[in-house]
Amino acid sequence: MYPKVSSQHFQSLFNSAESGLKVLLSTDSKKKDHNMQDIDWTKIMVGEEKWGFLIEIAIRTILMYFIILTGLRLLGKRGVGQLSVFEMVVIISLGSAAGDPMFYKEIGLMVPLAVFAIIVGAYRLTTYLMAKSKRFDDLVEGKATYIIEEGMFSVNEFRKEALAQDEFFSELRQQGVSHLGQVKTAILETSGCVSIFFLSDEEVQPGLPIMPKEFALASKIVDRDGLYACSFCGKVQPVSKGQQTECASCKRDEWVKADNRPRIK
Ligand SMILES: [Zn+2]
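That is the input. Now the predicted structure with zinc ion docked in place:
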């Protein structure tokens, strides 16, 4: 059995639906008006805060500024040029602890002070241990690695490093190197810098060209007999034309005509 619906009941249902729809429509048009005209500039400028909070921000920021300065002085670093990975971690942690208390009023200044004290303490302890133990130092900072010895890549070392060949060639070119025969030793320092020790002009050996145009000519089959350099490891050896030749050092087989010009200074 269905419940009986009287016509009066139906009418009242219909009326309430209609008025509900009207309310919906009217709030919709009100919303539009609000969007178009009543832009709340105070809210845009200071958010949920009162204007007075700006003064608090000024005080917080000035205090944090001195806390940061003191923290950095206590780290004992003179500058931030060439940060090691480990120092970078310290600086980033300090940075994230420093910013928030400037504008979050929920965070008191004791919080960053505590963070700073702990990080600076941990940093000082780590550097102390690094000075005491060579092994600990290698663990934290990594080791300086030989990239080039006697004009050839130290393949094993080089493969481990993230420094790409292109990037390294660019570094060498900036030092006026045009082929690896001009280089006695290149060392990748823990800071990421490359130290290069050159051979004198009289000592320059035939080596792998690193100029982009010459390097791009690398091929497996050469069209003239002569001294060629392995494009992967820089090993120089005679290669005869039309013959596939394996590198005596790294077993690859792509060659670039070796160059023996002195370095242009
Ligand atoms: Zn090779």
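The two ends are 105 Å apart (CA to CA).
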